[in-house]
Design goal:
The protein has 54 residues and is an all-alpha fold. It is 59% helix and 0% strand.
């Protein structure tokens, strides 16, 4: 059974490019740790299609 989960992140203030990159690296590491490399690639590719920066 597939589950869709929504993640909402609220940021108050200015988001720099460095902060954005760091957040995406942390997110990618967490996804790899939980699901493994192959599934993580699929998840991250799907997220890119939804407008996240590459």
């Amino acid at each position: 059974m597939k589950r869709n989960r929504e993640i909402i992140v609220e940021v108050k203030g200015i988001i720099t490019d460095e902060m954005r990159r760091e957040y995406h690296h942390i997110l990618a590491d967490a996804i790899v740790a939980k699901y493994g490399v192959e599934i993580a690639k699929q998840i991250l590719e799907a997220l890119k299609c939804d407008g996240l920066p590459k």
